Amino acid sequence: MEATARAGAAAAHDEAAPYEALAGLAQRQLELLSGDELPDAVALNALLEERRALIATLPATPPRSAAAALARTKALNDRLESELARHASVARRALSHVELGRRAARGYGADSSRSRGLSWNV
Question: Does residue 19 contact residue 70 with C-beta atoms inside 8 Å?
Fold first, then answer.
């Protein structure tokens, strides 16, 4: 009887292993995104590809033994969403500064007749 219980626990662990790996990938993504610096896009893309490949192997209905790993993955994904939103906000601010600089540069160059009377040859 004890051997049967151990075999059942081992089978449940084996069934949950890919879901544990999914949670691990989410944790690694979060680590990449959690810093103040821009994340390493190549490393992040590699993790996303690994995640897609892993998800493609999963059954449509997860086993009950995967419930804890899936709950952990969901919590990590919620945090990932927040980090992505934070990085997107930083990127939008940076782009708005670039656009402001472009408008200022166009403003200086918009009317070329102003500089016609100036001689740059000294």
Answer: yes
Helices (H), ranges, the chain: 2-33, 41-57, 67-109
Report residue 92 as tokens. 């939008």
Instruction: Please name which of 70, 59, 63 lies closest in space to residue 12, comparing C-alpha atoms.
Output: 63
Q: What does the domain layout of the chain look like in residue ranges?
A: 2-106
Dihedral (Cα; 22, 69, 40, 38), 10-degree rounding: 150
pLDDT tens per residue, range 14-53:
899 999 999 999 999 999 988 878 788 899 999 999 999 9
Residue with tokens 């004890």: 2
Number of other CB atoms surrounding residue 23 within 10 Å: 21
Q: How many residues does the chain have?
A: 122
Q: Using CA atoms, how far apart are residues 63 and 61, in angstroms rounded to an integer?
A: 7
